[in-house]
Each structure stands twice: as C-alpha cells, then as structure tokens.
Amino acid sequence: MSELLAPTPLPLGNLIDQPADALLGLIALHRADPRPEKLDLGVGVFRDDMQATPVMRAVKAAEAHIASTQASKSYLGAEGDMLYAERLAEVVLGSAIDHERTAGVQTPGGTGALRLGAELLARAHPGATVWIGAPTWPNHAPIFGEAGLRTRSHRFYDIERSRIDFASMLDELDNARPGDVLLLHGCCHNPSGADFSTGEWQAIAALCEARGLIPFVDLAYQGLGDELAEDAAATRRIFEALPTAILAYSCDKNFGLYRDRVGALWIQSANAGVNALVRANMLTLARSLWSMPPDHGAAIVRTILEDEALRTDWETELAGMRARINGLRGALAAAHPRLAPIGDQRGMFAMLPIAPEAVAQLRDQHGIYMAGNGRINIAGLSARTVPVLVAALAPHF
Ligand code: LMR
User: Fold this and answer.
1) Which residues have a Cβ under 8 Å from the Cβ of 70 and sit 6 or more positions away?
2) Catalytic annotation on 253?
3) Which atom of ligand 1 is found nearest the CA of 43?
4) Interatomic CA distance for residues 130 and 115, integer angstroms
5) DSSP string across 72-141
6) Ligand 1 centroid, distance to 74 Cα (angstroms)
7) Is the CB of residue 208 less than 8 Å from the CB of residue 214?
8) What pLDDT, on the 0 to 100 scale, is given for residue 262?
9) What's residue 10's pLDDT?
10) In 294-384, alpha helices (H)
C-alpha cells in the first residue's frame, strides 16, 4: 500500500537548478535601478554619445532594399546563404582563404558558430581538450562543455598588472596534447582588451604547429579595434601558417545586428578530401541543431557587402564607432595611472584591476553596473561620465 502511495520520481527529476546568466542579468538589474545618474557598463553593445544603440545607416538602407525586392522566403538549406558567407570571407580572411580546403557556412550568431565548431570537434576528436585562456567570455567553456568536450583553463592575463602573461600561457600549454584545441580571440579580447603582439601570434602559430594543436579563433569585433584588415591580420596569419584552423565569426557587433543573430563558421582542412568530409559533417550537424540559420541579418550583410555605396557607408560608420571607443580609451588612460594600459588595448572591453567587492560597491553606492570580474563596456561611457567613473574608482585602487 505504502509503495503505491510513494511519490513517483519526476521524469525530469535529474535537472538541477541553474543560476541566471550573470552578464545578461545585468541588463535587468540596470533597468530596474531608478537612479537617473546610473551607468550601464555591462553587456557588450555599442553605444553612441547619447547612450543609444542605433540601427546602422547601411543596415536600414539594406533592410529597405530587401523589403522591396525580396521575392521569396523559401528555404535556403543548412548552410544558409552561401553568397553571404563568400562575401564575408573576403572581408575576414581576404586572400588567406584557400577555397579548395575551406568550408564556410552561415550560423546563428558567433555563438552558433562556436557551438557548431565544438560539435564538429566532438564528433571528429572526442578526446580533445579545448584550452581556454583565463579570463575569457563566460559562455566559452559552457559552449564546448555542452558539446561534450573537455575544457581546460590556462593563464593568459595578469589582471593586477593589466597585461598579457605570455610566459605563463606558454608554460601551461606545455601540457596540451596533439589534437587538442587552442581557443584564441582574433582581436579585441573579451574581457581584457589585451591582444597578442605580432611576435606572440607567430609564437602561437609555431606552438600549434610543433605540438599539433588546432587553433580555434573567435572573431566577434572586427573593425572595432583597428581597421578591418588590421583586426583580421592575426586570424589570416593563423590560417596561412597552419594546415587546420577554425574561425567562428560574429557580425552582431560590427554591423550592430545583435538580436538578428548573424555569424559564420569557417574550417580549413589539410586537403580537399578532408574538407569535403568536414563540410558534409558541418551540414548534418547544423541540420540537427537549427536546421537552417535565420536569413534576415545575413541578407542585410550580403546586401551591404555587394553594394559599393552601402559598403562605404558601413565602413565609415564603423570607423566612427571605433574612433569613439578609442577616444574613450585615451580619456580613461589619461585619467589615472592605474588605467594607463587601457589606452593601448583594443575593442569594446577593459578589465578594471579591482576586487569583486569593489564591483558590488560601485553598483550599490554609485549605480555603476559592470561584469562581476571588473569588465566594463567602454562604449557605455562618454566624455562626461569618464571622470564620474574614475572618481568612484579611485578609493579602490
Ligand atoms: C558580451 O560579452 O557582453 C557580449 O558578447 C554579449 C553576450 O552574449 O555575452
């Protein structure tokens, strides 16, 4: 009798509670704060001087063009819009792409590209470990982990000194085995803003070659650090130097298409035969993950890249965004000696050398919102608020 009355285990009873995403949670926290002088330095979206994230001019024009000319919304296939991937490859990889050995597909955002690459690696080499430099974007390890791959963190950055600790990185990567994967930020490192020098990139390429590691580049901020070609230079070098290389790309930031989820994945293989296998596997994996990527954002990017006037306008507006970020970097660097390294770093983010308690205090006492590790979105600042931030920070240095 008692057995009959015993509660049956829930079919979903193995689930455990999950904390809300801390970075995305900052959006709601900031929104709920009634203080008018509050500062949102949280999630990485570009903001102009008025703190708005406008739709880019070229995007608006491309959308209007698509709305008036698009004749069908019929399916395209698991690879998405191949002309989008081809036009984008010219911007990203330039002449470093070897079409015989490289498969590229459209993905839902950079996250989709990372996940598809992770799923392919898990299928191709399930025993591989993915080496991820710390600190990094908090979604990196979960993406690879959920695909079933082992991840290991290695030291990359000295937060206290605000600079790359390359010697420690090489030291720790001594434990990597052939077939392991090395995750690299192509430019505008998230969260530190600290990018490798040309010499360090050469050393990384040599290390990958000598130890048989697969470089997996995440490039999500091309054009927001330096010119488009400069921000892609390291990725191109990696693709030229090594037989096998992977690139996950996002158009979310440099085209301002965040919620449209626009990305791409390219995988370069040792030869055309392996490339055919890789491509076939990318397509079956994509089919099971999302069947087909959403078209609208990719159609916008393709329209811009295929039209000379729109492309010029996009590059001009992107240059303005970059100049705004780099101007704010200069202002921060000049405002306090502890912030000086920010002037030489690049991209949307910088890490303040402060403790988590200071991050909480800045939020509670001053309404200044940033990631728990002290990462700020520089575009959330303005010439008026840089001194506000620096004054609030000073007691914590
Ligand atoms: C960020 O790091 O803030 C952005 O890449 C947004 C995100 O998805 O986390």
Assistant:
1) 299
2) yes
3) 3
4) 13
5) ------TT--HHHHHHHHHHHTGGG--TTTEEEEEESHHHHHHHHHHHHHHHH-TTPEEEEEES--TTHH
6) 31
7) yes
8) 98
9) 75
10) 296-306, 308-335, 356-366
Report CA(204)–ligand 1 centroid distance (Å): 25
CA angle 331, 383, 30 (to 5 degrees): 110
Q: Report which protein residue has its CA nearest ligand 1's atom 5.
A: 44
Residue of 218, 226, 260, 313 marked active site? 218
Q: Ligand 1 atom closest to Cα of 138?
A: 9
Annotated active-site residue in 220, 299, 335, 350: 220
Amino acid residing at 218: D
**Nearest Cα to Cα of residue 267 among 181, 379, 341, 354:** 181
Which atom in ligand 1 lies closest to the alpha carbon of residue 44?
3
0.90 surpassed by pTM:
yes
263 Cα–ligand 1 center, Å: 14
Parse the chain into domains and list their residue ranges: 18-55+311-396, 59-308
Ligand 1, pocket-test mutation among 24, 29, 43, most atoms within 8 A of CB = 43
For the chain, the residue count is: 397
Structure tokens at 297: 């954002």
Phi and psi torsions of 245, nearest 5°: -155, 150
Q: Which CATH number fits domain 18-55+311-396: 3.30.420.40, 3.60.20.10, 3.20.20.140, 3.90.1150.10?
A: 3.90.1150.10
User: What residue ranges of the chain have pLDDT lower than 70?
Assistant: 1-5, 7
Nearest CA to ligand 1 atom 2: 44
Catalytic residue (one of 195, 226, 253, 260): 253
Atom of ligand 1 nearest to the CA of 252: 5
204 touches 176 (CB < 8 A): no
Gap between the Cα atoms of 59 and 73, Å rounded:
19
Please give the distance, rounded to the nearest whole angstrom, from the Cα atom of residue 342 to the centre of ligand 1: 19
**What's 59-308's CATH class?**
alpha beta
pLDDT score, position 5: 67
Q: Cβ–Cβ contacts within 10 Å for residue 52, how many?
A: 8
Tokens linked to 275: 């490339």
**pLDDT value for 4:** 61
